[in-house]
Amino acid sequence: MKVSVLTIVRGRKTHLHNQLKGLLQSNVPPSQWVIVGMNEDVSVDLPADAPFSVKTARVNGNGTQLPLAEARNLAASLCETAGMVFLDVDCIPSPTMIAHFQSALRKDDGLWMGNARYLPLGAAREGWQMADIQKLAVNHPLQPTLNPGELMPSKHYELFWSLCFAISKIGFEKVGGFDDSFDGYGGEDTDFAFAARQAGIPFGFVGATAYHQHHSVCKPPLNHFNAIVRNAIRFHQKWNVWPMGSWLEAFAELELVRFDPDANELMILEEPTHQMVQQAETLSPAGF
């Protein structure tokens, strides 16, 4: 099964360049690299001997919102191969990532989440070498540790993250794509996984490794406060389950929301201040 790599991006030009550098080192290159810019045009200069083509497009969201669902759907519509690997712009593919995703899709045409390993600050500086970042990367404590190419089927669809995953184009269409009523950051990937379960698409983890480039994060993600609350309400209306519970509880502890999952209540009490957002930003050593 031929596969394409699908990437959505806003800003992060250095991350995108590093992803290209990784793709050019793939043992099995993709047939195509599809890049969709969110609220911005995007362009990439491929070397003349690149073993794959590139296709770029743009999607416009509302103001500063990240139209994640819409961008991923557009990328899928532009994909010309039977297999699709969605890879966030933060991720550098390992040389074997695409081959392991291909193998997983051939074995079981399902939804396969890859193995993202996290890089410390400065690991992907200019001139980085693949052998060096392989040594520096660490596993995320909430995700399974797998051997290269190892498959681990799972019934826990709620553990799906859209950072690095593969699905066939037929499977994607069977799921119905990402629900673009989720506007901005948060919940759209769990919704996609729940829709996959509803559609009878098998889910699992595969040892297809990508290296996540370090960047600052907000803990809790106050920089996406309104989108998370809005999308949590939308998710609960659709599935009768509250997603992103730890984030909502953290917002409640800051007295920004009233969150009572037993009473099915989530209400904004106060917006986070700019100072609160700044204080929540952190540069953790492992980048998560």
Strand content: 15-25%
Number of strands: 14
Low-confidence stretches: none
Count, helices: 9
In short:
Belongs to the glycosyltransferase 2 family. Keywords: Glycosyltransferase, Transferase. This protein is an alpha/beta fold and 288 residues long.
Q: Your description of this structure?
A:
This is Glycosyltransferase, GT2 family. InterPro entries: Galactosyl_T_C (IPR027791), Nucleotide-diphossugar_trans (IPR029044). It comes from Neorhodopirellula lusitana. Belongs to the glycosyltransferase 2 family. Residues 153-204 form the Galactosyltransferase C-terminal domain. With 288 residues, this protein is of the alpha/beta class. Helix 1 (13-23) links the parallel strand 1 and strand 2 (32-38). It folds into 2 domains: 3-212, Spore Coat Polysaccharide Biosynthesis Protein SpsA, Chain A (Alpha-Beta Complex); 217-282, no CATH class. The strands form 3 sheets. Strands 1, 2, 3, 4, 5, 6, 7, 8, 9 and 10 form a 10-stranded mixed sheet that branches. It has helices at residues 13-23, 68-78, 97-107, 130-136, 169-175, 188-198, 225-239, 245-253, 274-280, and strands at 3-9, 32-38, 53-59, 83-87, 91-93, 111-118, 138-139, 151-154, 164-168, 203-212, 217-218, 257-260, 265-268, 281-282. The mean pLDDT is 94. Helix 5 packs across helix 6 (188-198). The two termini are 33 Å apart. It is globular, with a radius of gyration of 19 Å. The longest helix is centred in the C-terminal third of the chain and has 15 residues, at 225-239. It contains 9 helices and 14 strands.
